[in-house]
Design brief:
single chain, 234 residues, alpha+beta, eight-stranded antiparallel beta barrel, 5 helices, elongated, signal, Lysozyme inhibitor LprI N-terminal domain-containing protein
């Protein structure tokens, strides 16, 4: 028996004695029950399996640290991620594994950045599956909100938002562009940032700066302080 064969046999015997080792690097689910193309791909690739387990573990830690209402927001963002992952699992695409690997890696890194006990107030960098917003001090007692979002399913950049406004009763109010077509309100929702976008009368509207079909309205999670450099300097 060759040395490589003996090594392989030893690995098989070790896993037979300690089956938990076979699951040590993932995935987070039983591959015998994997049915979707994405799940099958994850089970076939050790790197994908490792990242899937990393995501599941971090997601579990975050969910345990949240209240019931906040769990709904994180669960919705996670569900959107799973839809994105499954969209990338096209068996006819030769780059499918690379696409899934990129999506899982980015998700794992994003979940690692989320902090459940952010500083008080609105200042900071806040993220979601679609992008990030920064809120930083500005002139004349105002705050500046800079946002940059994309369509993750089409893998293309969508738009950015850069306006200044005042905080009133804990809510940062801004308007999209010089004409009052759409208004954004940013406020704290526990450890998260909630952005709503309306016509000023309580009715939700799309953002003119986003091509009229996508909105910055979303729940964002605190991922750190604002960068030292201004957005235009990057």
């Amino acid at each position: 028996m060759s040395a490589s064969a003996r090594t392989s046999l030893a690995a098989v015997l070790l896993l037979a004695v300690c089956p938990s080792l076979a699951r040590a690097e993932g995935p987070s689910f039983d591959c015998r029950k994997g049915r979707t193309p994405a799940e099958i791909a994850i089970c076939r690739d050790p790197v994908l399996a490792h990242d899937d387990l990393r995501i599941a573990r971090r997601y579990g830690v975050l969910m345990k640290g949240l209240g019931a209402v906040q769990r709904v927001s994180l669960a919705a963002d996670q569900a959107a991620f799973l839809r994105l992952r499954d969209t990338a699992a096209d068996g006819s695409d030769p780059g499918m594994y690379a696409s899934i690997r990129s999506i899982l890696g980015e998700r794992a890194a994003f979940l690692d950045r989320i902090r459940l006990a952010p500083p008080k107030g609105l200042i900071g960098t806040w993220g979601s599956l679609e992008g990030e917003v920064e809120i930083r001090p500005a002139d004349r007692g105002r705050l500046r909100l800079y946002g940059n979002i994309a369509d993750p399913y089409a893998a293309r950049w969508t738009c950015e938002f850069d306006e200044r406004g005042y905080v009133k009763s804990g809510v940062l109010g801004l308007q999209d562009g010089e004409e009052p077509i759409a208004f954004l309100d940013a406020s704290r929702f526990g450890p998260f940032l909630e952005i709503t976008q309306t016509d000023g009368k309580g009715q939700g509207v799309d953002s003119p700066s986003c091509g009229g079909w996508q909105s910055f309205a979303n729940t964002y999670f605190y991922v750190g302080p604002v960068p030292d450099s201004e957005p235009e300097d990057r």
